[in-house]
Amino acid sequence: MQCTIDRRAQFSASHRYWLPELDLAENQRLFGAGSRFPGHGHNYLLYVSLSGGLDRYGMVQNLSLVKQVIKQEITSQLNYAHLNDTWKEFQQTLPTTENIARVIWQRLAPHLPLVNIKLFEHPELWADYQGKDMEASLTVKTHFSAAHCLALPELSFEENTKIYGKCARPNGHGHNYHLEVTVKGEIDSRTGMIVDLAALQDAIEEYVIEPFDHTFLNKDIAYFAEVVPTAENIALHIANLLRSPIQKLGVELDKIKLIESPNNSCEIDCRQLAKNPISEVEKEPVMSL
Fold first, then answer.
1. Per residue in 233-285, pLDDT tens?
2. Which residues are catalytic, by number?
3. Could you give the CA distance from residue 34 to residue 30 in angstroms, rounded to a whole number?
């Protein structure tokens, strides 16, 4: 029987996004405030995922050993360090979140049966790396507030109430939606980036946050005049809105996760959308309650 376990660790470190072969203006254009001297810092949160069969002691790996390896190979070296100067790998490729995750994998792989490295730069930005050469994913988390009513127009209030419960009330109700947008691409061998982060954030703001925030979805978003704005349909519509703009940035839209409340979220595998481009309402997203 295969089992996956996670080990959490953390470290605090600083870094600077700066390429000496470029002038000040070009570094500022590429990296924005991240290019400022002498750099900036983060409290990094690291999740190391391991997979394997259970041994006679009921473990995939002895967690004391896992903790020791992570401390010896990673956190003792990176904690309170300036990353650009700490590991030789960051001399060639800048220590972006996605590239740090890649190098952490490389340093742990000889010791542990890794399946994923997840590195949080802060709670609204993290990277995942799974050992596939220069391929990594980056997730941006943001939010918007909106109201909706769940009801099919061809059904009576009583019939809609049987399907949607209190959510069918005609004056609607609201949520503080949390949105996670995951993109996948190749880490640039010099900049360490899979995508221009500022451009990605601008695309999410333009196509989703600005038009959706502080709206009554059924009335203010034309698409939901005909489609019931369930969490699943909202996530699916967001995925279709973002696919093309994100593709133009040189990366692939990988996942959309919409958290409607602490008890209700849904996730769209956007790779399926690309393979099977049928109408949105025919999609069946993965739902987790």
1. 999 999 999 999 999 999 999 999 999 999 999 999 998 876 665 444 443 33
2. 167, 214, 260
3. 9
